[in-house]
Amino acid sequence: MAVAILVSALGAVLAKHESRKRFIRLQELIQTRDQLDIDWGRLQIEQSTWSTHGRVERLAREQLDMTIPGHQDVMMVRQ
User: Chain centroid to CA 60: how far?
Assistant: First the structure.
């Protein structure tokens, strides 16, 4: 009987220890997820900033020497 009680107590201790380890890992994963969500939000804001119409137009003019065509340069194509 004493051996059964000892084995049972040891099993309970090991189960509790494993439960605590898994809870700690869960908390770490939740923290990682939250940090990734924050980073994702920042990247979305950065992407929208880099792709604004004004910035794209300015870069097209400055780096590619592009200009907006005048009315005489625009041709309408109809099918």
Answer: 30
Break the chain into its structural domains and give their ranges. 24-66
First-to-final CA distance of the chain: 94
Distances (CA, A) of 25 to 9, 37, 48: 25, 18, 35
pTM over cut 0.70:
no
> What would the two tokens of residue 49 be?
């900033």
pLDDT digits (tens, 9 = 90+) for 1-58: 988 899 999 999 999 999 999 999 999 999 999 999 999 999 999 999 888 888 889 9
